Amino acid sequence: MSRLDKFADGRWLGWLAALGLFLLSRPYPGIYHDGRLYVADALAKLDPGGVGRDLMFVHDGQFGFSLYTPILARLIAVLGPSAATMAIVALTLALWFAAAALMVERLLADRPPALRWAALVFVVSLPSLYGPLNVIGFGEPYATPRGLVEAAGLAGMAAYLSGRPRRGLGLCVVGMLFHPIMGLCSVAAIGAALCLEDRRWLWAGLTGVAVVAVAGLAHLPIADRLVTIMDPAWRAVVETRSPILFPSLWPLEAWSLLSVQICTAAAAVFLLQGAPRRLVLGALIAGLVGVAAAAMLGERLSLILFLQIQSWRTLQPVAVLALACLALLVAELPRRGPAGLLGTSLIGLAWLFRDVGELSLLAAPSGLLLVAMDGKSRFTRPRLYMGLALGLLAVAAIGYAGLAGAGLANKLARAGRYSEGIVWFSDLPALAIAVAIGVWLALGRPTPPVMARIVGVGAVCVLAILLWDDRSDYIRARDRGRDQGLVAMTAARPGPVLWLVGDMESWLLLGRPNWSTRVQGAGVVFSRPMALEIRDRAERLTNLGLAGEDFIRPLTAPERRLPPPSLAQVRIFCAASDAPAWIIWPRWDDAPPLAAELAARDWTPEAPFTRDQVDRGALRALKASRYAVIPCAGD
After folding, report:
1. With contact defined as beta carbons under 8 Å apart, do 268 and 280 qualify?
2. I need a surface site. Which of 81, 420, 570, 593 has the fewest CB within 10 A?
């Protein structure tokens, strides 16, 4: 065998292909999503008299429990915000992929290498969202500590599967130094698996729970939140701003996704043995207990600590394992006859239409039931049922691809540029990968020729390198930091800035606190004073028509286009004693001019700003080539 053949048949080529797909599925969007919070906190640590005066950091209730932002702040001080953020995201993804590859190798150690590779590809490239409202996923390309902690948890699971449970728990504890809440997820999954293996772990766990409960009843620091009830005013703000914390407020689609992931993992339990089986069962138990705790102790009893812990996040290990288990089902169930093939088809159908609540809630449990009945059910015409199962799945896949393709074309047209994020989040690439690998696994086809594999892997890696940085020109310029022209333009009036239709701009471009922005409300559950202040400011803005309902309900209300600020609105708003120094508003290219009495100055960013907003009943891409910089406080 030649060196080329040895390389192609080894693990490295397969891992390289999976890594390329992983990077394609996680294009870098810049400082985005929850990464805005951690980058802003790092900026606040570097500039306590500027960004550090933002109310989100004055009333900080969460960042002090993590080592992440001190490290990020040091990186930003050396590299600047843009390069530092990209570097830490790249490192996080590399560690996450390595840990995922190790975990999958251990989970399916008794299966053929081809199946282990397929499971890894499913984990790194298929939809990664879990929980309600599609706001959080695993392996995210954002500057948050979640990815690092998930990597530690995956490595911990691999250690457990290798017979080193204490090392596995130790890795999870290391992860908790960066994000205590996410660190608990893998601890819960591994801990439940250990309890299934040895009851002494169960008694040790119950003892730990009792100790924590006593600490709460003794009103020790932090632990006293176990018995402290969130007052109605604070809870009302949290419910409005963060409905993901309250299971009764979850839409049907959230329960549909949960059903699909749980049923997929549960079906694999019938195929696994030993430690892998216990780990999957442990993750299922931890996930369900976490949701129950969020519903009973957090939502029903309003206990502050359980609302802050967000125990439903224990669904994260289930979400990762479910994708690995999906590859196992596709490879082995179709060979077990009509029940296995029907069960696989129904679970596959549930994955396709996981956003259509009623359909997936019916299909996923039905598929699980058929898997559980495998060997006990008898079909008088097995070929007919197998054909129906394949036909149903094929028609569903083709129909879904058509709908997703139409939606993708519409989004790309609005964006006005190619975006790897838009393409991948359409689910079309994931569907193509799932169908291609699924058919290959189900039919047991041989691997492609050596040269075909090498060329294919090379193409995937080149595309990953070229397309991973998915930032728009505006985001690239914004992420670099201070805009000296804008800083000089606003130097005469120190103080916070109200940047309408924006989030990071005041922190990054000006180095100033935000007077109010939607992103500030992400941590309202951790600080009562901040929650009430954010509510009051948002209500003032919405009552005056300077902001829409999405300012108060960013997860559930669409962002609507508002008319330009009027002289009357600005006069009333700026007359308040705590008014910001400036109001900055994007002059949409098709908007009428502002009133001359507002004395607005023009600032031109390096690249136009674009935003999708609902305008006249339809979602449109608005473009602003200039910003209006309006003096406020004191005028």
Report:
1. yes
2. 593
Q: Are the beta carbons of 327 and 347 closer than 8 angstroms?
A: no
Residue 585, phi then psi, degrees to nearest 5: -130, 135
Question: Measured between alpha carbons, how far is 65 from 523 in angstroms, rounded to an integer?
Answer: 13
Of 612, 601, 605, nearest to 560 by C-alpha is 612
- Residues facing residue 620 across a β-bridge: 613
Collapsing DSSP to helix, strand or coil, 609 comes out as strand
Strands 618-631 and 601-603: antiparallel
- CA nearest 195: which of 211, 208, 214? 208
Q: Which spans in 218-251 are helix H?
A: 232-241
Which pLDDT score, from 0 to 100, does residue 635 have? Answer: 57
Q: Which residues contact 543 (CB under 8 A, 6 or more apart)?
A: none
What would the pLDDT profile of 283-342 be if each residue is shown by its tens digit?
999 999 999 999 999 999 999 989 999 999 999 999 999 999 999 999 998 888 777 888
Q: Which of 572, 581, 539, 456 is nearest to 18 (CA)?
A: 456
Distance CA 333, CA 371 (A): 8
Eight-class DSSP state of 28: B
Q: Are 330 and 344 in contact (CB under 8 A)?
A: yes
Helix (H) or strand (E) holding 603: strand 601-603
Angle, vertex CA 165, rays to CA 162 and CA 171, nearest 5: 100
- Cβ atoms of 186 and 172 closer than 8 Å: yes
pLDDT digits 0-9 by tens, 73-88: 999 999 999 999 999 9
Q: Is beta strand 609-615 parallel, antiparallel or unpaired with respect to 497-499?
A: unpaired
> For residue 29, how many other CB atoms are within 10 A of its CB?
20
Find, among 295, 307, 286, the residue nearest to 254 by Cα: 295
Q: What is the pLDDT of residue 405?
A: 92
What is the spatial distance between Cα 392 and Cα 385, in angstroms, rounded to a whole number? 10
CA dist 119 and 596 (Å) reads 62
Compute the Cα dihedral for 287, 293, 296, 302 and give only its sign.
negative
With a CB cutoff of 8 Å and minimum separation 6, the contacts of 574 are 583, 632, 633, 634, 635
DSSP state of 1: -
Question: What Rg value do the Cα atoms of the chain yield, rounded?
Answer: 26
For residues 591-605, average pLDDT: 90
Q: How far apart are CA 105 and CA 155, in angstroms?
A: 11
Give CA–CA dist 219/210, Å, rounded. 14
Q: Could you say which DSSP state residue 584 is in?
A: E
Q: How far apart are CA 267 and CA 333, in angstroms?
A: 10
Angle at 623 between CA 619 and CA 624, to 5 degrees: 140
CB 420 within 8 A of CB 24: yes
Tens-place pLDDT, residues 39-81? 999 999 999 999 999 999 988 877 777 899 999 999 999 999 9
Q: Strand pairing of 609-615 and 618-631?
A: antiparallel
Give ∠ CA 350-353-355 in degrees, rounded to 5.
115
Q: Give the Cα separation of 608 and 319 in Å (integer).
A: 38
Amino acid at 500: L
Long-range pairs for 423-431: beta carbons < 8 A, 24 or more residues apart: 424/24, 424/25, 424/27, 427/127, 427/400, 428/401, 428/404, 429/24, 429/25, 429/125, 430/25, 430/125, 430/126, 430/127, 431/352, 431/397, 431/400, 431/401, 431/404
Run of H or E including 612: strand 609-615
